[in-house]
Amino acid sequence: MTDAHIIEKAAHIIIEGGLVAMPTETVYGLAANALDAEAVSRIFTAKGRPDDNPLIVHVDGLMMARQTGVMNERAQALAERFWPGPLTLVVKSLGMLPLIVTAGLDTVGIRMPDCDTALSLISAAGVPLAAPSANKSGSPSPTTAAHVAKDFGDELFVIDGGACSVGLESTVIDLTADVPVILRPGVVTQQMIEECIGSVENASAEFLSNAAPAAPGMKYRHYAPLAMVTVVEGHAVSVAEAIKYLYDKDLKKGEKPLVMALRENKRYYGRRDIVITGSSGDPGEAAKKLYALLRAADEQQYSRIYFEAVPKEGIGYAVMNRVYKAASYNIVKV
Ligand code: TXA
Ligand code: MG
Questions:
Q1: Closest-lying ligand to the alpha carbon of 168?
Q2: Model confidence at 229: pLDDT above 90
Q3: What is the DSSP annotation of 262-322?
Q4: Ligand 1 in reach of 167 Cβ (< 6 A)
């Protein structure tokens, strides 16, 4: 739990129209008073974020949520089941927010983070907080205070809440259509949601198919490290064989390759540079470590990353959604 005077100082900065980086259970957020258009515009400038991408509004409970958006029956049910937690509900806006927050849309994404520090800050400021992930647009989301400081320097006030427990951004679900649609997968899975409100669609389902992305290239490089990332999927032994082949070829060309492997496959790689993402039985570990590993690889100036796919089940689905993007859908199937 963060010191009361740090929360007070941060709340003061927010009320004065400034920005604060706050921890949440998912990733660190770059927060401003959601009711203050000028403050929110500072977020877009600081991040270099395109202004057609709406921000999530963070609340300290259902009451604040109801003052921000129309919490319909499904929204209410999901909030009761998963809040505080990593689930963002897109609902009709009540029109109280400056248009810059919702990028001019008549809907708003709302979430109550499962993090005492963030909740205390929202309550102390007494206003909902608009907060995207606290990274410069295009780099991996920050899961420690040091990641935030690396992107924004000393001038930004960062509340250090340690490493985020989840490590991937929240699940985003649009509840405004007849059939709700998952816009971004996260650790709250489609199955968990369907157990609560019945069947929903998944806008990112296509990423599981063999189909090439609709629009390849930069558009998808949301979570991009500097290194070129290649995902290798298939049977563990074949995956290791393929990665070793590509890795050794890279070395001869003067590249600096790195393997991101599952713990149980480490033994296949001998003395090659390797970091462990997790184990196939525990994709939650990979979720928690992914962004930190990508950032560390950049710092150590690796030019190539070979990522052993984790099973796309449960949290593994969200992990691979982010990894595919970091890899610009550069996938080798063996
Ligand atoms: O876990 C998280 O969600 C983190 C922490 C800080 O809460 N925040 C986060 O924010 O990941 P950001 O801005 O990086 O991602 C917000 C996502 C974007 O994909 C945005 O397009 C979508 O939510 N979004 C927000 N409001 C929306 C709306 N009204 N309609 C559709 N999508 C919306
Ligand atoms: Mg982001």
A1: 1
A2: yes
A3: EGGGGGGGTTS-EEEEEBTTBHHHHHHHHHHHHHHHHHTT-SEEEEEPPP-STHHHHHHHH
A4: no
Helices 283-299/145-152 angle, 10° precision: 30
Query: Ligand 1 centre and the CA of 14: distance in Å?
Result: 20
pTM for the predicted model, two decimal places: 0.95
| 145 alpha-carbon distance from chain centroid | 15
Which residues partner with 275 through β-bridges?
260
Q: Which residues surround ligand 2, an ion (CB under 5 A)?
A: 133
Pocket of ligand 1 contains residue 183 by CB under 6 Å: yes
> Which domains, and CATH codes, for the chain?
4-210 (3.90.870.10), 228-333 (3.40.50.11030)
Residue 115, CA distances (Å) to 104, 183, 262, 283, 310 in order: 29, 23, 29, 21, 27
Q: Is 287 within 8 Å of 168 (Cβ atoms)?
A: yes
Per the CB < 8 A criterion, the answer to whether 257 and 232 are in contact is no
Query: Does any ligand 1 atom lie closer than 6 A to the CB of residue 104?
Result: no
Q: Does the Cβ of 163 fall within 6 Å of ligand 1?
A: no
pLDDT at position 238: 97
Q: Which two tokens stand for residue 178?
A: 């007849």
The yes-or-no verdict on residue 167 having pLDDT over 90 is yes
Tens digit of pLDDT for each residue in 282-291? 999 999 999 9
Q: What is the pLDDT of residues 260-270, one digit of tens each?
A: 999 999 999 99
Instruction: Answer whether residue 187 shows pLDDT above 70.
Output: yes
Mean pLDDT, the chain, as a whole number? 93
pLDDT of 220? 43
Q: What pLDDT was estimated at residue 224?
A: 72
Q: 93 pairs with which residues across the strands?
A: 69
